From TrEMBL, chain A:
Highest rank taxon of the organism: Bacteria
One Pfam family of this chain: DUF1501
Signal peptide: none
UniProt source species: Botrimarina mediterranea
Protein name per Swiss-Prot or TrEMBL: DUF1501 domain-containing protein
Taxon lineage: Bacteria, Pseudomonadati, Planctomycetota, Planctomycetia, Pirellulales
TrEMBL record, chain B:
Name recorded for this polypeptide: DUF1800 domain-containing protein
InterPro entries, alphabetized: DUF1800
Organism: Botrimarina mediterranea
Length: 395, 441
């Protein structure tokens, strides 16, 4: 009696398959330049992160005046320099910063801020500011449209969204789409499968057989990768964002050809009793980021990956009456990874020069995008963003 | 129907090289529907091709089914939960007496690819779906006018922000590139002019409205013709172009014909025939289904099935739709296989054919096969009787299933089985549905 599961136990498809699956992409599509191997990972901090309590300008008297209930003690902060420090719970991020793998860009936003989550997120995700453009395509979707190889026979994903929500607008392209991966099991075969006989009846028949064997082989490679991850003892915290990033790392480890990965951490819409919740969110984010970059380093992938973390807006400087903060404007953006020049960028906000009670715009978010597009991804930022923006010396 | 079909589409008469056999009956049902159960296959084998094709083209109405489907649809839109709307459509595909109509609705959903991601209105998405179904076999112009003037499309392509002096080109561009002419048949100046022709179209109180005051009534030059033109005039102009007929012909060919089974010339003659017949979609479908080309050997099992077709086809041919599985779960599996109903990836819709078969989606197909065989699509695995739709007889289970799915006892890809290997029904179903032949139809 031959069952499906017996087959999986007795046969290693990786050794059984006489070719490299397309999923283990670049190796099989050889002549691709090294630059193509560069990967951008975007983390969306969903709900409007209170930037002022993330990268804290403790040296500014205005901070203590504006924040009574939410004020973080200077002695608890993780000092960056004489003016700013990171939230005490961002130890992972601080280690990355000290290691030169984290850049913090202060005061990032866009002119005439819109405090609606929806429109503000739309603006960040589109990379445009004019109303008419916001309805078109996402900035990463347009990027993928431009990088898409001509006549490529590949049918694998160009981008992955790892998460439970709908694929974010940022990834919508005119011609490119992202694969939304909700769980690891999406790449895991539940049973075994029948041995596949080679078919040379038609070109299509052999394509399907090849593709199918490649998929089943990738599933097995993926299963091996999972085991390898345990063996190498790279441990991720047991949080949702960490688990999403661990999926990204696994996809990279087994050789996914996707160049853009996207994950989001929800919960930043902290209008009330913010102190504890916000600290937890930042700890989850920063520990997950640290685990992710360490995992990449352990697997020799860290020179290929740059991470961008953003939120659609910061919160207001003044706290509200429910020990929370309401929707504001500019905030910090994080760029992380081995290839970047770590450090503090942008002017530390001056709390005596607020605009309508909000932090003023220091760096247009599209300058950050432009830097990544031109200098990392290798596509024309002007084409993606519709205008030229001054780059930052991040890379 | 014209007396003589266009060149390349001569009528099929069973012959020694293309007999009316089980394989061709299965082929007809897989292409023009979601596969058929054993009983229907035997009936059609007995009654011959004309009766079988007639039944697909002119299905019996079933008012009880329509009433039930409408109730489910109402509940879905009222719930505000898009998954329930997907389940509604899956229910229709599972149980409809008109499988060809549902396949055509899917085709037009992809042609007029509209995503609820942006429309964000289940009532409109359902209305659009019903429009696609109602006009699925109509003259293409009726379908086009109904769909582009519906709020779902107007929202999807920003018609609201297209007004005199501030044209938004989105609708104008996609109208030409995707809905009618196809890329390469127009210039950028035509797109700009088309956008101006469409100014004034908007949505008022949940419905299409033409607002004269926002309309740009200056003379416009589109595709070499100069005149003052409004949106309706633009549609008429585009519908009259031979490129539009060719695009419709290509769509129908893509739905019903396999990879490489027809050439340019056959498409051109089908397009010309469509133009002579007022772009009547039903005429086009009938021409293809009754043709010798459709039943030729090189058109058998040469088309990659879509996820919906794959899932619904397995359930319908095994008669597992009789004790319906959870349509919510089936819709979720179809999405995992790459076809999230009401959420096409972009304006171009799903890239069909070989693109359906990526690593992740093939793993999903294999896992769907396991889930089906294990009864995981039903609330309780006990609810499903996997044996109910098996062809009768005492032959090996793999062989009987193979006859049901593909009309042949052992297609190329079924590996020879060891003598003592007699899998259970569940194992056999899971195995066969994970074979290359299951992705082809």
């Amino acid at each position: 009696m031959f069952t499906r599961r017996d087959f999986l136990r007795t046969t290693s498809l990786v050794t059984a398959a006489p070719f490299v699956p397309t999923f283990l992409a670049k190796t099989s599509r050889a002549a691709t330049p090294v630059a193509d191997d560069r990967v951008l990972v975007v983390i969306q901090l969903d709900g409007g992160n209170d930037g002022l309590n993330t990268v804290v300008p403790y040296g500014d008297d205005g901070y203590g005046r504006a924040r009574k209930a939410l004020r973080l003690k200077e002695s608890d902060l993780l000092r960056i320099d004489d003016h700013v420090g990171l939230h005490p719970r961002m130890k992972g991020a601080k280690q990355l910063f000290d290691d030169g793998r984290l850049a913090i860009v202060q005061g990032v936003g866009y002119p005439n801020p819109d405090r609606s989550h929806f429109s503000s997120m739309r603006i960040w995700q589109s990379g445009r500011r004019h109303d008419a453009d916001l309805e078109a395509y996402g900035w990463l979707g347009r990027t993928l449209d431009l990088t898409r190889g001509n006549g490529s026979a590949s049918v694998d994903a160009e981008a992955f969204f790892v998460g439970n929500q709908a694929t974010p607008f940022a990834l919508w392209g005119r011609r490119c789409g992202a694969t939304a991966l909700t769980e690891l099991s999406d790449l895991t075969l539940d049973g075994s499968f029948p041995p596949l006989r080679d078919s040379d009846r038609t070109d299509l028949g052999s394509f399907v057989t090849r593709q199918m064997r490649s998929a089943y082989t990738a599933a097995e490679a993926f299963a091996h990768a999972e085991q390898a991850a345990v063996a190498s003892r790279t441990s991720y915290p047991s949080t949702e964002i960490a688990s999403h990033l661990s999926v990204v790392a696994k996809l990279l480890r087994i050789g996914s050809s996707a160049r853009v990965f996207y994950a989001s951490q929800t919960g930043y819409d902290t209008h009330a009793s913010q102190l504890y919740t916000h600290g937890n969110l930042l700890r989850e984010f920063s520990d997950a980021l640290k685990a992710f970059l360490d995992d990449l380093r352990a697997n020799g992938l860290d020179e290929r990956v740059v991470v961008l973390a953003f939120s659609e807006f910061g919160r207001r400087v003044a706290e509200n009456d429910s020990k929370g903060t309401d929707h504001g404007a500019a905030g910090p953006v994080f760029v992380a990874g081995a290839p970047i020049n770590g450090g503090l960028y942008g002017k530390t906000p001056d709390l005596s020069a607020l605009i309508d009670g909000d932090l003023p715009l220091g760096v247009d978010f599209r300058s950050v995008y432009a830097t990544l597009l031109d200098q990392w991804v290798g596509v024309s930022s002007e084409e993606v963003l519709g205008e030229r923006y001054d780059p930052l010396p991040l890379i | 129907m014209n007396a003589s079909p266009p060149r390349g589409w001569q009528r099929y008469e069973p012959s020694d090289s293309a007999p009316w056999d089980l394989q061709r009956v299965v082929h007809l049902h897989r292409r023009a529907g979601f596969g058929a159960d054993w009983e229907a296959l035997q009936r059609d084998l007995d009654e011959g091709p004309d009766a079988a094709i007639d039944r697909l083209l002119n299905p019996q109405q079933d008012p009880a089914f329509e009433r039930l489907a409408a109730t489910i649809g109402d509940a879905a839109t009222a719930s505000g939960n898009p998954n329930r709307l997907k389940a509604w459509w899956v229910f229709r595909m599972l149980k409809s007496p008109d499988p060809l109509g549902e396949r055509l609705t899917l085709l037009w959903h992809n042609h007029f690819a509209t995503s609820n991601r942006k429309v964000n209105n289940l009532v409109w998405m359902r209305e659009q779906n019903d429009l696609l179904r109602r006009h699925a076999r109509a003259p293409f112009g009726d379908l086009l006018r109904a769909v582009v003037k519906h709020p779902a499309m107007l929202t999807w392509l920003d018609a609201d922000s297209n007004r005199k002096g501030r044209p938004n080109e989105n609708l104008g561009r996609e109208l030409m590139e995707l809905f009618t002419l196809g890329a390469g048949a127009y210039a950028e100046t035509d797109v700009a002019a088309a956008a101006r022709a469409l100014t004034g179209w908007t949505i008022t109180r949940q419905a299409f409205e033409f607002r004269e005051s926002r309309h740009d009534d200056s003379e416009l030059t589109i595709l070499g013709q100069t005149s003052p033109l409004d949106g309706d005039g633009l549609l008429d102009l585009l519908l009259a172009r031979p490129e539009t007929a060719r695009r419709v012909a290509n769509r129908l060919g893509g739905l019903l014909m396999g990879e490489g089974a027809i050439d340019h010339e056959a498409i051109n003659s089908l397009a010309a025939g469509l133009q002579r017949n007022g772009l009547n979609i039903g005429w086009g479908v009938e021409t293809i289904l009754r043709s010798e080309a459709f039943f030729r050997d090189d058109n058998l099992r040469t088309r990659v099935t879509s996820p919906a077709q794959h899932a619904i086809g397995a359930l319908r041919s095994l008669r597992l739709a009789d004790s319906p599985p959870s349509s919510l779960l089936v819709a979720e599996w179809i999405a995992r296989m790459g076809q999230d109903l009401f959420y096409p990836p972009n304006v171009g819709g799903w890239t069909e054919g070989r693109s359906w078969l990526s690593t992740r989606t093939l793993i999903a197909r294999a896992n769907f096969a396991s889930a089906l065989a294990e009864g995981a699509l039903w609330r309780s695995p006990d609810e499903v009787d996997l044996v109910v739709g098996l062809p009768p007889g005492s032959g090996p289970i793999v062989e009987r299933l193979s006859l049901l799915f593909w009309g042949v006892a052992a297609p190329d890809s079924v590996p020879a089985l060891a003598k003592d290997d007699e899998p259970t029904t569940a194992e056999a179903i899971a195995r066969l549905l994970s074979l290359p032949d299951s992705t082809l139809g």
